[in-house]
Design goal:
The complex is a heterodimer of chains A (292) and B (171). Chain A is α/β, with parallel strands linked by helices. Chain A has 2 domains: 60 residues, no CATH class; 223 residues, 3-Layer(aba) Sandwich (Rossmann fold), CATH 3.40.50.150. Chain A has a 7-stranded mixed beta sheet, with helices on both faces. In chain A, strands 1-2 form a two-stranded antiparallel sheet. Chain A is globular and about 60 Å long. Chain B is an all-alpha fold and 171 residues long. Chain B has one domain. Helix content of chain B is 87%, strand content 0%. In chain B, 37% of the residues are buried. Classes of the chains: A alpha/beta (292), B mainly alpha (171). Chains A and B meet through helix 4, helix 6, helix 7 and helix 9 of A and helix 4 of B.
């Protein structure tokens, strides 16, 4: 029986385990391999089976280096799709509205699941949102946060990165009305059943607005993901996960229903072009909501 | 005259391909926002590697022509056919790059998604097809071997540069 799309796994999801306090747990090779093989993802299972380790546990140092390499490769694709510019173009008016409403002179942008912090660092490097913008990247993966901090330091960028659950009350967002929460490529890592709670947590924090970009699931995006990950990526993990991301992404109606269920006061909408005329630049499109 | 032009054109294409191969080996490795200097350095490294890897094939062809001037015709025939395969590909790539740099950022992605990405995927096929076509048209074993060796050398530039300078580098 063919797998439902949501059942396919990305390898990177299996390479990082943490307990409730965020402490890292060992990754058992046999466990990861069997989960992939059990879903018929034999190529992915072979990739994991070849990874170094000892005593049945994957080598943490190897995984750390691999995850950083995968995210740096992903950054290159984002550059080619002008992704950070598109985010800045959407966030500019949202930030201006917060300032005009007198809610704050300083606007904070929090990137949830920031990885190596490409979007945050690009916004910092270009000052695209103007002065008085506080840029924060948050990720559950401490290795990626360390890499993001190191990269920002090398270029002297004014932004910061935190190892935390960005949506836990009191963890990062302590001043919702001046905060815009963003993410890119995060939503497809969440199960559909968990999406309303994801949006509700932002509403509960009273954030000014949110904008979450993710892949449009369609044949074009899956084909494009395959071509570009084959052409641009070197890591077998990147090539595999890039295509799986497109396959498991949530359709617009699922995202919109979840956003309306969790954050109706934000009048959420999905900004995407017509489906009969797919523009490659819209392969990542946002769910946007702003508190009235 | 024709031989010189063909050889010169192939050399220019090889240098360009080496530069792009070096760039590709470096792209997506540093994670930095500002990487123009690193891109140029990678392109120079690619050109250097391409020249080094092509040297044996060029040396063998040159020596065989000096030893037997009659073999020049085979080399020229092979070169013309290789050029007929490679030049259109290179022209499309250069036009796409011109579009990339001249279009506004909103349209820039088109050059990447429609042309440059797919062509990168096709590059090994084009490289091998040109070499095989050149080899067949030369009707000469040594020239055929050199044509195929030259294509293999250029295909080796990107992985070699990756291993030499960019493996494991994430900062």
């Amino acid at each position: 029986m063919p797998l439902r799309i949501a059942e396919v796994l990305e390898i990177t999801d299996l390479l990082w385990r943490a307990d409730a306090d965020g402490n890292r747990l060992p990754v058992l090779r046999a466990d990861a391999v069997s989960r992939l093989a059990g879903r018929g993802q034999r190529r992915a299972a072979r990739i994991v089976a070849r990874m170094p380790g000892a005593g049945g546990v994957l080598d943490e140092r190897y995984i750390d280096d691999l995850l950083v390499r995968v995210h740096c490769e992903l950054q290159r694709l984002s550059e080619e799709l002008q992704f950070a510019r598109r985010i800045a173009e959407l966030l500019g008016p949202l930030a201006a509205r917060i300032r005009e409403d007198g809610k704050a002179t300083r606007v904070r942008v929090v990137d949830i699941g920031c990885g190596v912090g490409y979007v945050v660092r690009w916004l910092a490097a270009t000052s695209a949102l103007g002065p008085g913008t506080e840029l924060v990247g948050v990720d559950l993966n401490a290795t990626l946060v360390t890499a993001a901090t190191r990269l920002a330091g090398r270029e002297g960028l004014e932004c910061r990165f935190m190892h935390a659950d960005g949506l836990r009350p009191g963890a990062v967002i302590d001043d919702g009305p001046r905060t815009i929460v963003i993410s890119s490529g995060l939503l497809h890592h969440l199960p559909a059943a968990g999406l309303p709670a994801f949006f509700a947590s932002q509403a509960a924090l009273g954030v000014a607005a949110f904008a979450h970009w993710d892949i449009v699931p369609c044949a074009w995006s899956t084909l494009g993901a395959w071509i570009f990950h084959q052409a641009r990526m070197r890591e077998p993990v990147s090539r595999h996960d890039g295509v799986m991301s497109a396959r498991r992404a949530h359709p617009a109606d699922v995202l919109l229903a979840a956003a309306q269920a969790g954050a109706a006061a934000y009048a959420p909408q999905i900004l995407e072009g017509p489906r009969w005329h797919p523009a490659a630049i819209d392969v990542l499109r946002p769910v946007v909501g702003a508190r009235a | 005259m024709t031989t010189g032009l063909v050889a010169g054109a192939l050399l220019v294409l090889a240098v360009l391909d080496g530069a792009f191969s070096g760039f590709r080996a470096s792209a997506g490795r540093t994670g930095l926002i500002g990487h123009r200097a690193a891109d140029w350095r990678a392109a120079r490294r690619g050109v250097t590697l391409a020249c080094l890897l092509l040297l044996p094939a060029i040396a063998v062809v040159s020596a065989s022509v000096l030893a037997a001037p009659g073999s020049l015709g085979a080399g020229t025939r092979a070169g013309v056919v290789m050029l007929a395969v490679y030049a259109p590909y290179a022209l499309v790539v250069l036009l796409a790059l011109a579009c990339y740099w001249s279009l506004s950022w909103r349209k820039r992605y088109l050059a990447m998604t429609v042309i440059l990405g797919p062509l990168t995927l096709l590059r090994p096929v084009v490289a091998i097809a040109g070499a095989v076509a050149g080899a067949v048209s030369s009707r000469d074993v040594l020239t055929s071997a050199c044509a195929i060796a030259a294509a293999a050398a250029l295909l080796a530039v990107e992985p070699a540069a990756g291993r030499a300078w960019y493996a494991q580098r994430t900062s």
